[in-house]
Amino acid sequence: MASEIIVDARGHHCPVPTLRLRRALEDAPAGAQVRLYADDPMARIDVPHFASGAGFEVVETAEEAGTLSFLIRKPA
């Protein structure tokens, strides 16, 4: 499988992380995975809500040292 597309939105407040994720997913090929890093606590709510509403799959969600990590898959 191809490597992940990384979107680092740490240091930005919502909606910026979600907007950057959306742009990356729109530009990504079908079946691609995009990993978003964000440190705004609102991303915990906004990112899964955006992904499900837009037809993307949240594969993984994690948090370490105040940084949220989301792995989102674009359907094939």
From TrEMBL:
What the entry lists under PROSITE patterns is as follows:
UPF0033
- Family membership, please give it: Belongs to the sulfur carrier protein TusA family.
**Domain UPF0033: residue ranges:** 7-31
* Species per Swiss-Prot/TrEMBL record: Phenylobacterium ferrooxidans
Write down the InterPro entries for this protein, in alphabetical order: TusA-like (IPR001455), TusA-like_sf (IPR036868)
Q: Name one Pfam family in it.
A: TusA
Q: Report the superkingdom from the record.
A: Bacteria
Q: What is this protein called?
A: Sulfurtransferase TusA family protein
